[in-house]
Every structure is written in C-alpha cells, then in structure tokens.
Amino acid sequence: MAGGTLDVRRGGRTGPTLVFVHYWGGSADTWNGVVGHLPPEQATLRFDQRGWGTSRSLPGPYHLDQLADDLATVVDACVSGPFVLVGHSMGGKVSQLLAARRPAHLTRLVLVAPAPPQPPATVTEEYRQGLSHAYDAPETVQYVLDHVLTAAPLTEAVRTTAIRDSLRFPRGAEGCPRWPDGS
Q: Could you please report the per-residue DSSP string of 29-50?
C-alpha cells in the first residue's frame, strides 16, 4: 500500500473468517475480548484501519470510500473463502459500504452499534463540534466513553485500550471520516 501498511492479525483456520472492523479511534485490539471468547480454531482477521493503531503511518485521505477500499484490499489479500464482516460503529459503516459492493464470498454482515449513513437530524452542530474534540486528551476520551459511547462501565483493560487507541492518530484523522465531497 502506498505510504505504509495496514497491520493485520489472523487467528484460527476453521469456519468462515470473521473479519472485525473497529470503531473510528480504535484498533485491532478493540476486538481482543470478543476474539478471546471464540474457539481458538475459529478463523479471524482483525486490522488497524488507516490512521489508527499501528497503521497510523498511512497517509490520508481518511474518507469513507478510502476506508472501504482498504477493507476490500485486506479481505482480498487475506481471505480465500467465505467470510463475515463484523463492524462496530464507524467500522459498521465501512463494512456496510464494502457489503454494498457485493464482494465474493461475503456470507453475512454483523453490525454492532453502527454509525448511521448520515448524521441524525436531531444532532446539533454544537454536539458535532463537541465530538470532534473527543480525542484531544485523555480526559475528553474518558468523558465520551462514560457519557456518549457506553451504557455500562468498562473493565479497566478495555478502558485503557480505548483511551490509548483514541489518542494515537495522525494529523488529519481526528474527527469522523466523511465522504470524499466532505459531507
């Protein structure tokens, strides 16, 4: 990939490959708890999306089409048979975009609290601006985790990973990705 690489982690070899796509601000580590509950032989694939985790050296643009292209590249390079996309939040939105392209061997799409295709009309500009600063400092990440993103307290390990990942981004990756036209 021009400008860097996407960090990919594979596990198991049995069944359809579960391809996990993390939230905007996360990393492949976001899925550690889920993968830890699966049988070790279950085929899994996780990766750090462009701009996050160990893939933060990849340059922008950080728009939705680029993220879906990256996901397609990972699937094409790493999955040879049936697979299931499992996307969380913005990873759900990216997974929907790839699923709409009808890739070969996609058998299911699992969405976990997916980001909506367009922001809800009830979201004010003030609220959007507040969220655009969610990754500014550990305190702002903690606030968003506690008051926006979760309904129950996180374990300390999950909380630490979420804060660490949310603060590791390159310039230009902060805020939510948009369509190439900026919408």
A: GGGHHHHHTS-TTEEEEEEPPT
Phi, psi of 61 (to 5 degrees): -80, 150
pLDDT, mean of residues 68-72 = 95
87-98 pLDDT tens trace: 998 899 999 999
Mean pLDDT of 48-68: 85
Which strands form 106-112's sheet, in the order they lie side by side?
8-11, 42-47, 14-21, 83-88, 106-112
**pLDDT for position 110:** 98
Instruction: Tell me how far apart the alpha carbons of residues 9 and 67 are, in angstroms, rounded to a whole number.
Output: 17
Q: Domain spanning 8-166: which CATH class is it, in words?
A: alpha beta
Q: Which of 58, 138, 134 is nearest to 89 (CA)?
A: 134
Cα angle 75-51-54, degrees, rounded to a multiple of 5: 75
